[in-house]
Amino acid sequence: MYDYKMKLNPEQIEILEGKQGAVKAQVMETLVMFGDLFGAKRLVPVTHGKGHLVTSFGIPLLKPLFKTMDKLIDEGLYVEEGFTVDPRPTDYANVKCNFLEKLIFNTKMYGEQERYEQQLTKVGLIDSNAFTCTCYMDEVGNIPKKGDILSWAESSAVVYANSVLGARCNRNSGMLDLFGSIIGAVPEFGLLTDEGRKATWKVIVKTTKMPEAQILGSAIGIKVMEDVPYVYGLDKFIGNELNDETKSYLKDFGAATASNGAVGLYHIDGLTPEAVELGESLLVENAKEYIIDDAELERVYKSYPCIWKKPEAKANRAFIGCPHLSYTQLINWTNKLCDALKKNSKKKVNMPVVFTTSPDVAAKFKKTTEYQKLISTGATVSSICPLMYTNNPLTKLHNIITNSNKLRTYSAAKYLKNEDILKAITE
Amino acid sequence: MKEFKGRAITGGTWTGEAVVSKQGVNTLATFQKSALNNAKTVIAADQSNPDIYQKEITGKALCLPITIGSTTGGLVIQTICSMDLNPACFLFSKAIDSLAASGIVLAKIWEDSNVIAIDNLGDEFLETVQTGDTVEVLDDGTVKIK
Predict the structure, then answer these.
(1) Which terminus of chain B is more exposed, N or C, with fewer CB under 10 A?
(2) B83 vs A61: CB contact, 8 Å cut-off?
(3) How many domains does chain B have?
(4) What is the layout of strands, in order, in the sheet containing A400-402?
């Protein structure tokens, strides 16, 4: 048995000793060894029992994943309150692929998708609509309360839950998310502790206009890496109320901090719950300082490489919504898109344009007149993961543009600011 | 020769070539292309990391501050270890991050991997070691740059 360092209660020791099954013992050993590495003193109960998993795709190469899932199922282990999971990798109805692209997706890339979704169902997947990276949207309903302890992964969801909802979750990896949810406990360290939630960076936004969320997040992520930033000067642009608009902004901002760096928590002065409650006491003494002005944002924006085979070529596909768009964002994009087309005396977008959102938000949006307006432009709404789409060696040859800094980071997609992408798809 | 002492997370002795990233290594962006292509070795594919972009990593000592990026990171490390595509050693100048730690623990417990991981080697380690240097790694977390 693993020679653990943290303090475990009798039941946890019993699990570790294998008295509740050999696989459960391995699951516990993983959590305990992981916690010991970070000096965790104990495991603490997960208080928001609904999990969120990052791994949603059945890539055959992930043999360890499928093998582990089979072991869990064979021993009857599952998540009692269920879980949501990241988006599905394909959606042929709304994101068109040619025969060869489909062949590669169905055989090489995601050949184990059906088997993996069956495995997910057996260990606690909530339902077939549970595939989204924005499980915390009202329409989806996996919403932790302030102070809740989570066992989630998906970097953009974790940073949102910590920062905007005030829940407590470390940046868990795939598998650890599931293991913590099965055991119902996670090691207490890092972002689960008051000390770990203190900011070591004071970021001062001094731009002349509202910064693009995804560039601001990128700049901060690149600068602070895994540290916690406390951001001043943003509330003057986005206000002091956590409404749909600001939450959507913070969703995109946070995703960029997490993917361009490794941020798991940020505080926005006067806006996010802990900043409102505790203010500057969240800043450690001698916190490092990072000032962001217009020039700094432009420097960061211009540093993004374009790795298309022909960088000057015209874009031929656009993905908007990574992380998945909120309902408010879908409405806003529809209105902006229709206005831009009208201004250019056009009725249709000039390339395949995919707006991505969760299945539950899509269902709500499809009942609106805005949905009909959006579809009439030739754009589509999908609940796909754009990143998974771009992994295909053939689809990645498309000249994809996106307003997502996360998608840019993990694919050959080119990042454009919102206004530039609007121009590109309507002119 | 310079010597540094860190914390042996998963110990072992090893001598070989270093590949150095002065910036955080984005695990998913670095490893996924080679893993997806069932390649025999990993060629780092993260366009945003010029330090290691297009360099071979398998069987080398990957020297880095921490890993960054997507929370699939741990699973990616477990997978490359199960495929024997992993760096022989992960040598972290800072305290290991939670994603890399997950990957190392998953690889050790579920794949019986012998991947070596040492953290807390210090900033000077990363300032000193250069890609192509020969490094000797000892069981107790000592790293010698030859």
Answers:
(1) N
(2) yes
(3) 1
(4) A380-382, A353-357, A317-325, A400-402, A414-415
